[in-house]
Amino acid sequence: MTWVYLPVLNALIQILITIALGFVSDFFGIVSADRLVPEAVHLVFYVLLPSLIINGIGIQIDLYTESNVWAFIVAFLILRAIALILSLAIALFVNWNQQQRVLGLGDVAVLWLSLSWISTVILGVPICTAVFENPTLGAKYGIMAGISSFIFQLPLQLMFLECHAAEEAQRTSEATGRSTNSAREELPSQEKERESAVITIQEASEESFHQLSTEDIAPTAIGDRIQEAELHLRRSWWSLVYAEHLPDMDLWLDILRRVLKNPVVDGIFVGIVISLSTAGRYLRCPSDKCVEGLEWISATLGWLGNCVSPLSLFAMGAWMHSQRKLILIPIPNLCVAMVSKLIVVPLLMVGLAKGMKLNNESARAAVLIATLPISLASFSLARQYNVGEKDLAANVAFGTLLMLPTVIVWNIVLDSVGLYPIEIV
Predict the structure, then answer these.
(1) Which of 32, 92, 152, 283 is most buried (most C-beta within 10 Å)?
(2) Angle subtended at Cα 115 by Cα 409 and Cα 79, rounded to the nearest 5 degrees
(3) How confident is the model over 163-207, as pLDDT tens digits?
(4) Full-model pTM
(5) 38 φ, ψ to 5°?
(6) Residues 6+ apart with CB under 8 A from 3
(7) C-alpha to C-alpha distance for 10 and 422, rounded to whole angstroms
(8) C-alpha span between 319 and 38 (Å, rounded)
(9) 60-78: per-residue pLDDT in tens?
């Protein structure tokens, strides 16, 4: 008798082998992660992923007739909102405990990414395909789960990170300015000290000369000025953001511009328009309304979309090897992150699936996608803004390594308690 979870196990092994191939290829110099990863990311996010999304939302899914689609999307939207509230609460608690502003919006963004920036497409599509033994359902649930990440989480993440960048720029600017001004103010007194030192040297003995310390007349190091600026900019423990940045229209316009220029967001928009206009019904083949002369559109988009997961996973393996050392955070911190992402977040989705009254198929897909690790894109975002890189690198790597037992165990647990049973047709 075939083990009921064998298709899922096969898909997980396939994913891990693809990652391992990327790791080994970088190890032997067959590919270079420094060149491969940036180019692969650009290809995926500008060509392959938009193709998959347009084909999935616009052609393969009918937003008018598909049951539970909107409830499924809202469930993930609420999950991300809860993760945001938890991230804010953690940051405020840490600040309150220290009675000073230790964590800011940049740290909130990192916490939020580590909880809910799930790899819904790259990992979600193949996992759901294996669970339901249906590629159409795999693409449907993987893409639907990712919509809220781009229409809700991405804009707010950019706002948090841009505020963080503005604070860092202000901190550096003020530190440099204070150092320059202080040096100018100290210059006359330093000249007098030097003159006095010359007279003293001329009059003193050789022993007295060696007792003179150059530290007495050296200008203050810039590191000390940066520390002073840090203290000067420190706010109350409840202040996660420097309020003066919020009215900055350039900040908001830049965020809006980046969101609108995001090819994945554009792909979602195009897909929704195609589906709601019912044009997708004529491009979906085979079907009663299929226009056979246009079948190449869906076929091409699907062909390109099928490259998303293997290319992304291969690049992830090369990236893992290039990092050399992935555990750069305390082990207890890593354990808390893994428990939060692989156990707490799926448990939240179990409750949300009940609350949104998802059917068994949609609910099972939602819970299993919630168990998946966060996307490599979260690390790229953190590196771009120079915040939380070590935390997210460890989260991505070890979440991926623990994916096989996590998904299998969650399937077994759901079946053991009779929660969201599915029937394979």
Answers:
(1) 283
(2) 85
(3) 888 778 777 776 676 555 555 555 455 444 444 444 333 443 344
(4) 0.81
(5) -60, -40
(6) 9
(7) 19
(8) 10
(9) 888 877 768 899 999 999 9
